[in-house]
Amino acid sequence: xxxxxxxxxxxxxxxxxxxxxxxxxxxxxxxxxxxxxxxxxxxxxxxxxxxxxxxxxxxxxxxxxxxxxxxxxxxxxxxxxxxxxxxxxxxxxxxxxxxxxxxxxxxxxxxxxxxxxxxxxxxxxxxxxxxxxxxxxxxxxxxxxxxxxxxxxxxxxxxxxxxxxxxxxxxxxxxxxxxxxxxxxxxxxxxxxxxxxxxxxxxxxxxxxxxxxxxxxxxxxxxxxxxxxxxxxxxxxxxxxxxxxxxxxxxxxxxxxxxxxxxxxxxxxxxxxxxxxxxxxxxxxxxxxxxxxxxxxxxxxxxxxxxxxxxxxxxxxxxxxxxxxxxxxxxxxxxxxxxxxxxxxxxxxxxxxxxxxxxxxxxxxxxxxxxxxxxxxxxxxxxx
Length: 384
Fold this sequence. Notes:
Layout lengths: L10 H26 L5 H30 L12 H31 L21 H36 L3 H7 L13 H20 L18 E13 L2 E7 L2 E8 L4 E9 L3 E2 L4 H5 L11 E11 L2 E10 L2 E14 L2 E11 L15 E14 L1
Antiparallel strand pairs: 1-2, 1-10, 2-5, 3-4, 4-6, 6-7, 7-8, 8-9, 9-10
Helix pairs in contact: 1-2, 2-3, 3-4, 3-6, 4-6
């Protein structure tokens, strides 16, 4: 029988139940292992997180299908309706399970869509979501909710399993066999109210979400570089970079930097000095690793310095000089385009650096794990 009856679960409901159990338990294990793997096992960490995210999307779809099917079916009656506290707790746990089946993968999916990070979802679609902007703040919020609700889900699963074992080993009734084989059990009778279990579940989920949203989240450092004396004053600008992680491009940037620019439009020559606060670097979900000693080492050497002379080159310009970073000073050339109109200079430039030249990521010698090339992009508007 495919459909439920008041005394039994149909084949479809049982298939949904065990498929969901397999996916959820497997994904909990993947997430815990991937989270605890050290960064020196980056390739394996990436792979496990990609599998975790992909299975999470599958869990979301499976959970939605299961809930829709459950709404169309009668729910088998409790075997022991006289045990009101036990029955209420069991139903509340079911409410938490159903809600968590949707909320846990959804919050993780939104986090993934909102951030630049690593470990892509292994589906053709799903890397982004409609109406979900790239936002570090949103990603942090969703990450906190995802983590907390995942522990709520783990607790609900543990209670659900404990209840099933109690019925099988202590009560020796047919609660478990109804879900294993579809055996009919219990007496058909008018169902009790669902308001109290639903309220209990809502309180549990609300408490978890409230706790997650009130835990202080890491904040981006406050800009602390003082503006440099400059002939041209920067009005707006962007200092960004991208690198490939596990073959996928990931974009980051620096939010705090200052520039001292001298430039003669008639000769096309000048000089530039740019100070970059490395503590303001962000790279999605791996920001902490980027700022750490393996890469930028921002705590030991918090400021990078680019100094260069400007001159015409072909139809554009180049800034030719050096970049001091991590205690190394190496030559760097930045080609750029420049337009000056109505007293506003608009500049766009790009170059490619090799992270190994500055000793970054020595623990990751594989270009397939963390790319050697770092594409640097600069744009700004300035006036004098």
